């Protein structure tokens, strides 16, 4: 659900904004403009309080813009931007107990693996148990860095309360600081890219997205995409095995879906424009059911990709594009339909979210009519979407929806109708 504040265009023009996406002012502009909400929200109070935050957020936006076609160079720029968000000296000495990391990884294993089915929790736990927190070993700290990033994302996604340890209170933000300290000290992220460093960037993206730090969240997911391209993970058959990962072939599809979904949420174009080939990624019969579920979700984004691309073209999307995409989304069958899990809920929520976006575009194009033959072009289409979603989620409980995040379920989904 769009933030209830003025969009970037209305702020720059100093005009009234209704806070929708796209807003009425941008829709009614003579020259087509892109309605975005990328400017950091300013806090009320003296200007001296806002200066540090605005200065820290701005470099992340510059890195994001330059990140698209220069993978190796952009990684180095992103790393320099990250140093601006380092914690204070007072918090830099705090240690993260191994037992705390293990307990949160267990939460990931229980609740969040269905959403991010790429990390082998048992292997990761066995490795962090054997590592001294202050050990000056690059490989060891690489594992700890991955674990802290995963735990930060898991705490943010599951809304886990701050944990009290012998070294102080630890929340998801402190875990992010610990991850960045280790990454800057032990790992040259711009020169040595591997599966683990890519997933560190991904989990940092998740944390910042949940904290509504949009510039940083977009920077980290684009950083992960750029690293994946350096390793050629976007090419089928180029994946290498890593014992910490459950499904290495799913690393790039997870990044592709995540960037597309987040860019769509912000009204931006993704940095990676190539389509994803699902047919070449079909899992064998031995693959776990959650891996199959991620591919099913990717199929939704592949079907929606046409309309997303056409929206950015000079001619824009047509009525045929809207109706064809709706027919494709409605015709897709979910092979896990009988499984009650967070992945199944995520699939149904995402599909209805996409159908709602299609209807919103039809509305903005003035195509709606009470006598339209296609249901997506009628005024009552949102009611049908809401009914379909509630019907699909009727057997789910709060625990099933917990890994999706309470704000995502309540605002992004039900808040649309």
Automatic annotation (TrEMBL):
Protein name as annotated: Zn(2)-C6 fungal-type domain-containing protein
Species for this entry:
Penicillium salamii
Can you name one GO molecular function term for this protein? zinc ion binding
Known Gene3D superfamilies for this protein?
Zn(2)-C6 fungal-type DNA-binding domain
Chain ranges passing through the membrane: none
PANTHER family reported for this sequence: GLUCOSE TRANSPORT TRANSCRIPTION REGULATOR RGT1-RELATED-RELATED (PTHR31668), MALTOSE FERMENTATION REGULATORY PROTEIN MAL13-RELATED (PTHR31668:SF18)
- The annotated regions of Basic and acidic residues compositional bias extend over 63-80
- List residues of the Zn(2)-C6 fungal-type domain: 6-37
Query: Where mainly found?
Result: nucleus
Q: Which InterPro entries match?
A: Carb_Metab_Trans_Reg, Zn2-C6_fun-type_DNA-bd_sf, Zn2Cys6_DnaBD
